[in-house]
Amino acid sequence: MEVSPVGLCNHRCIFCAYDYIDYPNRHLDRDRFLSFLDEVSSLGLKSILYAGEGEPLIHKNIAEFVKKSKEVGIDCGMFSNGELLSEKLAQKLLPNLTFLRFSFNGGDAQTYAKIHKPSKNNVSMEQINILMTKVLKNIEYATSFRIKERLQVDLGSQFVLLPENKHSLISAISNLKNAGVDFISIKPFVFQNEGQKYNKNNGFIALDEIRDLINEAKSYEDSNFKVIFRENAFLNKEKERHYAHCYGCNFITTLNSAGDLASCLPYWDKEEFVYGNIYKNTFYEIWNGEKRKKIKYFLENRLDCNKCPANCRPNAINEFLDEILNAKVKHVNFI
Questions:
Q1: Is 191 buried (19+), middle (13-18) or exposed (0-12) by CB count in 10 A?
Q2: Of 305, 318, 308, which Cα lies nearest the Cα of 193?
Q3: DSSP 309
Q4: CB–CB of 84/59 below 8 Å?
Q5: Which domain holds residue 39?
Q6: Are residues 315 and 229 in the same domain?
Q7: Pairing state of beta strands 260-262 and 274-277?
Q8: Model pLDDT for residues 200-229, shown as the tens digit of each residue
């Protein structure tokens, strides 16, 4: 389950999948969400990704949410831009996280400012330099605290490769490696919703354009640091799906900062894909309710997945399931 603790964000990344909702000032209610964690745990939820619309570290109860999640047997991951990860907060979060992935998409201050767009108005380049240094220091503290406390949490980073920042990829890799992260994941821009402000055509980068760049990036690898190039994700932007309908949403779901439980990220704001609201019903009532049954039927029988965004989260699940459900295996009786 992907959970959005807040709608607010302290950055305005140009590729953000949620920029069209204008970062609403809303937070998941502490008491309701803590009881919600008990509900989903009792019904077998395996993991929660704290990410979504805004910056999860903005929520004043985020450390409590993560701690409670682990206590009830739910593995937790988190995506963050890292700016708000103080030493005190890192000490509370890291022992209870399975992974923390930092979104870091510019290798120099000018590019970082252009891509991340900190939400404060009229930020000078000197202030951007200070901000970028602060983020790297926060990451460095997290990695050193992990070593000191012998924690098992994975600390990684993500770089969304765009025409606007690809020239700074190598310097970003150098900065992040020096900060002590385990890996950097290089991904393409994913167009998730028709309301997104970033032009989906501008974000396209063909694989052949970046072969040399990726080879140079890979040269930074060693036994403690990996450069993960999501080649399949770049390829998926260039090809159609070979499955027709969506079964993946049986295995994942999204909870936004308003308490709406929906099928997936691209459709979470469309009422016809919202299963229900946790302030009105329990998770059991929502998951087993009539509306979810109708949505499930539509996803599995009528939805044209080729009209869905490339590289959506259910895509990998659907590709795996398609190999099982529609396998064309020769001599099947001899397997």
A1: buried
A2: 308
A3: P
A4: no
A5: 2-238
A6: no
A7: antiparallel
A8: 677 778 888 999 999 999 999 999 999 999
